[in-house]
Amino acid sequence: MGTRRVRFCLIAVALSCLLQAALVFAGGEPKSLRLRSGTLTGPQDLSSIAPKLRMQDEDLAAGGPALLRFNGPVNGALRGQADALGIRLSVPLGGASFIAWLPAGGLARVAALDHLAWSMPYHPGLRIAPEVSAITRDDPRSTIPVTIQLFASSDLTTVIRRAEALGLPVVGSAPGRPPAGRLGERPGRLAILPTPRQLVALRAQIARWPETIWISKKPAYRLLNDDSAWVGQSGMEAGQTTPIHDHGILGEGQVVGVLDTGIDADMCYFRDGVLGLPPTHIGSSGTGTPDPNQRKVRIVDFLWDQDDPADTGNWDSQDHGTHVAGSVAGDDLATIGERDHGDGMAPRAKLVIQDGGYQVDDCADLPALGCPVVDLVPIFQQAYDQGARMHTNSWGDRENFTPQNIYSEGSED
Q1: How far is CA 214 from CA 104, 146, 238, 341, 366, in A?
Q2: What percentage of the chain's residues is helix, strand, coil (to nearest 5)?
Q3: Contact, 408 vs 376, CB < 8 A?
């Protein structure tokens, strides 16, 4: 099992590749609001919004989505005032701006809020990501994975039926979550797989649904990993030094979750010479029985149903996961607990491995994260429940490698 992958024993690579993806963000000059779909200086600035994708103030008379821009950060007292007026500050766009859901009375209700700079309807033209707006009918792809983010209070079943009535294939969904303690509202999500013609014909209609917050390309999770321990610790100009390791910080007592293509668990950097292979668990729910006494790997979760824990010679069908696990916490069995050249960033840490499989399609290189999966949080929760307090994901949100440097629901998770 370890023979054909021994090259990974010679590689020490730092944790790398943060998600690069697509959602709304705020910034710009005081009292302006900069979204990925357009920059607004106030309620009268509609230059970035096509006339057919605008709303009138009176369209909110019975309630609905609005943009609120305050003069400064919103504190607990202001949130309490909004709650008392029935105004839900649903989606933060930086400390001073929100996408809000208004009750009956519409924008007239927000006039009573303290420190409000301006308010306006959340126009449908602001709810479509630029890369979705740019898609044309003659796009060569047969289908394009798309995520629709929905207000947490939305009736998900109703929205799914509405999408299916339009002929849109719904391939995944996740309900929203209302505010809970210190956690804010979490949008619901719907993943659809339209053809380019369907998307072009229906994107404006979807944007006009009152439940819609944001329409974007669904992240396509691609395998990316290429840096080393010394780069992570001292950069490119410090002679490949490892000051963290030099201070004796080697990850002792830590458990890291790794979601990737699996692991070659009997390789020299992971094998337990006494206990043998680690316990396994099938599926992304439940915890199985992690073994904290294992030298390196507490448990391996097989999230993809075509990876078989009984086939011990093929626990990593692509090798990327083994490479990443070594980057994180590889520790040569011959020198346990010491930092060797081939070891990972935290050689004394232990691992929870989540095997997402390997199969390239339009939705993911990791089939366990494919189109039906619209919420990564339950997967992260599984690793947490198995003892991990850090989680590494050496893959990126790359829809055919464009657009670059965007923030998606995967990044949010």
Answers
A1: 22, 10, 43, 46, 25
A2: 25, 20, 55
A3: no
Query: 190-219 burial, b if ≥16 CB within 10 A, otherwise e?
Result: bbbbbbbebbbebbbebbebbbbbbbbbbb
Q: What is the pTM of this model?
A: 0.67
Burial of 151 from C-beta contacts in 10 A (0-12 / 13-18 / 19+):
buried
The reply to whether omega before 403 is within 30° of 0 (cis) is: yes
Position 250, amino acid: L
Q: Identify the bridge partners of residue 297 per DSSP, sorted by sequence position.
A: 351
Token pair in block for residue 20: 């690069």
Element (H or E) spanning 216, and its range? strand 212-217
Express each pLDDT in 278-298 by its tens digit: 999 999 999 999 999 999 999
Rounded Cα gap, residues 390 and 60, in angstroms: 43
Sheet containing 146-150: order of strands = 170-174, 188-192, 146-150, 212-217
d(Cα 339, Cα 15) in Å, to the nearest integer?
16
Assess contact for 245 and 338: CB atoms under 8 A: no
The DSSP code sequence of 6-69 is GGGGG----S------------SSTT-EEETTEEESSTT--TTS-GGG---GGGGTT-EEEEEE
The C-alpha atoms of residue 351 and residue 399 are separated, in whole angstroms, by 29
- Alpha-carbon distance of 280 to 299, in angstroms, equals 5
Looking at residue 218, the DSSP 8-state letter turns out to be: P
Provide the token pair at 52: 């057919």
Q: Are 195 and 143 in contact (CB under 8 A)?
A: yes
| Distance in angstroms (rounded) separating the CA atoms of residues 320 and 395 | 10
Beta bridge partners of 255: 350
- Closest Cα to residue 145, out of 191, 188, 187? 191
Could you count the other beta carbons within 10 Å of the beta carbon of residue 301? 29
Residues 8-27: tens digit of each pLDDT: 332 222 222 222 223 333 33
Q: How many CB atoms lie within 10 A of CB 173?
A: 20
Name the stretches of the chain with pLDDT < 70: 1-30, 223-228, 398-405
CA separation for the pair 358, 310 (Å, rounded)? 17
Q: Measured between alpha carbons, how far is 343 from 323 in angstroms, rounded to an integer?
A: 11
